[in-house]
């Protein structure tokens, strides 16, 4: 009964947040295309990234998220394309998002580019609330809810040089309604909320073999507190990195990783939540990132290593 109660608590506490918040990532700087379509093709290679996050380990119904993204230049350095697949599970609710990305870039001088990005796709949502054992089986809040197929689109701006980047985006412009499908027209449960993202990052040479890469991501959503991620990765010999992270009102932790070789990178992060009621029931959140760059042109080799 304790586990069932915790699961119900999790569902009640997280469903409203789920309707308003996209999946979060500590490796947001390695998963940029998921939130900003203007990033597509920016690494001058076919970049494939796998990312998995297990949040609030030990808490029944806690979020579990997996992401596959890929993007590449097309035809010439002015055009980029990508694909983002995100699977997000919170308690009995599952959301799978599949989006295509397109970016067009304008050069400013020799090193600066401004990319205009478009993102379009669908969100596939399913809910198994009827599988939860509750005292009142007739409670309409815990009936089976039909799956939703929710198309959406968004845009992003991404300005970058060889030393820094800044971007702004709205990945999902439409605010689709979730419905029960029980009656004609359905019953409105909640709506998708627009997420406004601002990202930025740079790297600074401390010594010949040590650099620091500060990055940040600001997320603004109606009805919930503004969220700011701050990260500072120290890079050693262009091979290893480690550094702290902080998420306002939610968590603090650290990232570590390494470039296994020129084209393959592996990263891990741990963060501990301090800003919600689940903190006494979980042992933190774990995340792992694997990225491979299929380098097929001389320009990408000249830019190696690539920090963004």
CATH architecture: Beta Barrel
Give the name of the CATH superfamily: monomeric porin ompg
Overall shape: globular
Strand content: over 45%
The number of distinct structural domains comes to 1
Q: How are the strands ordered across the major sheet?
A: 1-2-3-4-5-6-7-10-12-13-14-15-16-17
Q: What is the count of helical runs?
A: 2
Instruction: Average the pLDDT over all residues and give the rounded result.
Output: 84
Number of strands: 17
Which properties best describe this structure?
single chain, 308 residues, mainly beta, Porin, 14-stranded antiparallel beta barrel, two-stranded antiparallel ribbon, 2 helices, 17 strands, globular
Describe the fold and architecture.
8% of the residues lie in helices and 54% in strands. It has one domain (2-303): Porin (Beta Barrel). It has helices at residues 2-20, 298-303; strands spanning 46-54, 64-74, 79-90, 93-108, 112-127, 145-160, 164-170, 177-179, 188-191, 195-202, 204-205, 210-221, 227-236, 240-247, 251-261, 264-273, 285-294. It is mainly β and 308 residues long. It starts with a helix and ends in a 5-residue tail after the last helix. The strands form 2 sheets. Strands 1-2-3-4-5-6-7-10-12-13-14-15-16-17 form a 14-stranded antiparallel barrel. It has 2 helices and 17 strands. The model is unreliable at 1-20 and 180-187 (pLDDT under 50).
């Amino acid at each position: 009964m304790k586990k069932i109660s915790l699961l119900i608590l999790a569902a009640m506490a997280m469903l409203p947040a789920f309707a308003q918040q996209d999946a979060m990532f500590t490796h947001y700087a390695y998963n940029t295309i998921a939130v900003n379509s203007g990033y597509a093709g920016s690494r001058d290679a076919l970049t494939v990234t796998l990312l998995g996050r297990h949040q609030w380990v030990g808490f029944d119904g806690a979020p579990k998220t997996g992401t596959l993204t890929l993007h590449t230049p097309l035809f010439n350095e002015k055009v980029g394309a990508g694909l983002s697949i995100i699977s997000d599970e919170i308690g009995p609710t599952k959301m799978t998002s599949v989006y295509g990305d397109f970016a067009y870039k304008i050069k400013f001088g020799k090193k600066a580019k401004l990319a205009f990005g478009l993102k379009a796709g669908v969100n596939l949502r399913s809910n198994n609330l009827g599988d939860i054992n509750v005292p009142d089986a007739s409670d309409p809040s815990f009936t089976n809810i039909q799956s939703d197929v929710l198309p959406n689109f968004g845009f992003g701006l991404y300005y970058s040089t060889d030393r820094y980047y800044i971007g702004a985006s709205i990945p999902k412009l439409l605010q689709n309604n979730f419905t029960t499908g029980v009656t004609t027209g359905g019953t409105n449960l909640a709506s998708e909320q627009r997420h406004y993202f601002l990202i930025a990052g740079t790297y600074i040479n401390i010594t010949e073999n040590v650099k620091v890469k500060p990055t940040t991501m600001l997320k603004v959503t109606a009805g919930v507190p503004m969220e700011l991620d701050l990260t500072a990765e120290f890079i050693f010999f262009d091979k290893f990195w480690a550094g702290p992270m902080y998420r306002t009102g939610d968590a603090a932790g650290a990232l570590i990783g390494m470039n296994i070789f020129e084209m393959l990178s592996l990263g891990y992060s741990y963060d501990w939540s301090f800003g919600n009621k689940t903190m006494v029931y979980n042992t933190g959140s774990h995340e792992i990132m694997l990225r491979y760059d299929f380098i097929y042109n001389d320009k990408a080799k000249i830019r190696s290593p690539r920090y963004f």
